[in-house]
Amino acid sequence: METINVCVIIGFVLGVYMFVRKLNEIWYLVKLGRKAYKSLPPGDMGWPLLGSSFSFYKAFTVGGDPDSFIYHLLSRNGRVGMYKSHLYGKPTIIVTDPEICRRIYLDDEIFQPNYPKSVKILEVNGLFSRMDHNCAYRIMAAPINGYNVLSHYVDFIDQIMAKGLEKWSTKKEPIELLGEIGSLFFKVISRIFLGTDIGASRMAELETLYKDLGPAILSILPYDVPGLTFHRALKARKKIENILQCVIEEKRRALEKQEREVESQMDKLIMARDENGMKLYDNNAIIDLLLGLLHGGHHTPAYAAMWALVQIFETPHVFHKAKEEQESILKQRPSTQKGLTFQEIKQMKYLMKFINELLRRNTIAVASFREAKTDININGELFYYIVLDYTIPKGWTVLIWTRAIHMDPQLYSNPKEFDPSRWENHSPKPGTFIPFGMGTRFCPGSELTKLELTILLHHFILNYKMERVNPKCCITHLPAPKLVDNCLCTITKLP
């Protein structure tokens, strides 16, 4: 009798578990209707309210395997290129097929950016998201794209990177490399967009505030509650807004009185006029543009640069090959020349392969968020020669899962292996290499980031070595892949 009772209890508990586990699917089945629900791609809607968030965070936080989240979907549902899920409180379609990703990136009318609340902390007034994207993109990209523009930055970036490495090598205590690199990159992006006249103390305060802002991106708990990371970030954002407001007003007065010349991108935004002589951008619009741009211009590239130094130093055969190239370039340099030139940078072919592999293997932006503005049918033969026919419902989030593409063994053999040689005479097919996105939303800072990485690596490879304090340190992947100790290390100058 007791055995029967135990079996009944176990059966009851399992029944309740299975029922609750299916509630999310039942909810969307009722909401969409049977026919519409059956047209969704396969997948797992997860638990009520929570969706698949628990398994997502387990895979992406300390000690987790970020690829396990996608591998689980593939193993259960097969390689179909898109899967239904429920993340960040919303029904979601995760896309892992290069061809579908390309379609979504190139269709701005149907698939519009719609990031979680935690990412929207980079907006103050919401004006940037409502601004005409082509206009906003030109504003952001103009000063940081193209050979002619970038060539003007080589000298001052060269000086910043050289001085930074020299300073690190004099430290008696280990440094947190991620934060130190972030400081260098902040100097670069702030000089380009804010200029050199806002004062060292104000610049230092901005940098400190941005350090409180960064950890809130893709926060698990995006609520304004004291003690939470998101609360601290909101306070930091308000202070950043106030500083930028003061800087804009000071610059506007000086520029209108012709007490100074137009120097930075902020100056150009302040002075921009339409055909009737009216201001194109008020203070709020300029703040909205700069708030996210200053973050993206130093925070995300810093993660890439940290991994660049780790990979180049901990992969001896890659390091030696890169060093041979750098030494060869130095031998050709005229004795009267001081510092790098843009022509020399263009000769660093192996280093470019290294950076491509870095951006593939250490995908910084794991996914891009979109929202379907109408029901959209995805059908036809895709990249893997699979014919499918699925619907993405209006209002659902669409995640372009960049990491899944970059780590796909059918696209990149032995994807976990760091191998710059895979880029030898290799031109990736559209949609298969998208570290900076594509289409009209292609990251405007892509070329500047590569330039900064190249110059930093040039000096490091030739003159320094690194020793990590915790070589077996764990990795976390939110908001981007990084070592838990922020790469605590010593930098030593070579004799």
In brief, what are we looking at here?
The protein has helices at residues 2-32, 34-38, 53-60, 66-77, 98-106, 127-130, 133-141, 147-151, 154-169, 177-194, 200-213, 229-256, 265-271, 283-296, 299-314, 316-331, 342-346, 349-361, 402-406, 446-463; strands at residues 82-87, 90-95, 111-113, 175-176, 367-372, 376-381, 387-392, 397-401, 464-468, 475-476, 482-483, 488-493.
Walk me through this protein's architecture:
A hairpin with a 5-residue loop joins strand 6 and strand 7 (387-392). The protein has 20 helices and 12 strands. Helix 12 (229-256) packs across helix 14 (283-296). It has 2 domains: 2-115 and 364-402, Uridine Diphospho-n-acetylenolpyruvylglucosamine Reductase, domain 2, CATH 3.30.43; 127-352 and 441-493, Cytochrome p450. It is globular. The strands form 4 sheets. It has a 5-stranded mixed sheet. A 3-stranded antiparallel sheet has the order 4-12-9. It is α+β, with helices and mostly antiparallel strands. Residues 241-275 form a coiled coil. Heme binds at residue 443. One of its GO terms (biological process) is sterol metabolic process. It is a single-pass membrane protein. InterPro entries: Cyt_P450, Cyt_P450_CS, Cyt_P450_E_grp-I, Cyt_P450_sf.
